[in-house]
Specification:
The protein is built from six helices and ten strands, in the order βαββαβαβααββββαβ. The chain is α/β, with parallel strands linked by helices. The strands form two sheets. Strands 3-2-1-4-5-6-10-8 form an eight-stranded mixed beta sheet, sandwiched between helices. β1, α1 and β2 form a beta-alpha-beta unit.
């Protein structure tokens, strides 16, 4: 497949690029600073862009099979960036007639898992209160996806870890795995790539966790 990855210098984005290349896909990595991209490969195109203008990034998404995005806030001070940048990507995609897009959101944006105990529910509510601006940004991003004409999937992980790929995790379409507290960024990337051709994830939020 021909894939475009936004947020390609982030923890999940770089994993998406690396794993996609290993799987034999052609990848366009959209970055602001190419020096921060640690991945190389003959099937990799690095597209330098500032995500302010949909017209500027149309060449990066034209004729692609899917777009994958790791765009999002890296701290509470970045709240607002996910919705704003995703809006630009969606406009470029719609102008080029590209439909499939998968983005990274967060577990607390979706419904609470069924069967979780008081400890998990309490911890989730504390985190949601501390990061309320970040989650509000991600909810707005998901609203933008729902209003778009794309075949979107929002992947919702819990706390992220920098650990090796396992390929072993749980997913729940429209919900979240009960008791899921952690997942490696590498496994989030793995899940995103697996979902590209899964029709059951289209226009859905998907919880993913160990």
């Amino acid at each position: 497949m021909n894939l475009t990855v936004f947020g390609a210098t982030g923890g999940i984005g770089q994993e998406v690029v690396r794993q996609a290349l290993t799987a034999g896909h052609r990848v366009t990595a959209v970055v602001r600073d190419p020096a921060r991209l640690d991945v190389t490969g003959a099937a990799l195109e690095v597209f330098r862009a500032d995500l302010c203008d949909p017209e500027a990034i149309r060449p990066a998404v034209a004729d692609r099979d899917a777009v994958l995005s790791g765009l999002g806030p890296r701290s509470r001070g970045d709240a607002g960036v996910a919705a704003r940048l995703t809006r630009t990507v969606l406009r470029a995609m719609e102008a080029e007639g590209v439909r499939r897009v998968l983005v990274v959101s967060a577990g607390p944006v979706g419904p609470e898992p069924e069967g979780d105990g008081l400890l998990d529910r309490g911890a989730r509510r504390i985190v949601s209160a501390l990061l309320k601006d970040v989650y509000a940004d991600l909810r707005e991003m998901e609203d933008e996806l729902a209003r778009s004409g794309t075949d979107w999937t929002s992947v919702r992980p819990p706390r992220l870890q920098d650990k090796p790929l396992t390929g072993s995790y749980r997913t729940v379409v429209g919900g979240f795995p009960s008791g899921g507290r952690f997942i490696a960024r590498a496994d989030v990337a793995h899940a995103m790539l697996r979902m590209i051709e899964d029709p059951g994830t289209v226009k859905q939020g998907v919880g993913v966790a160990y």
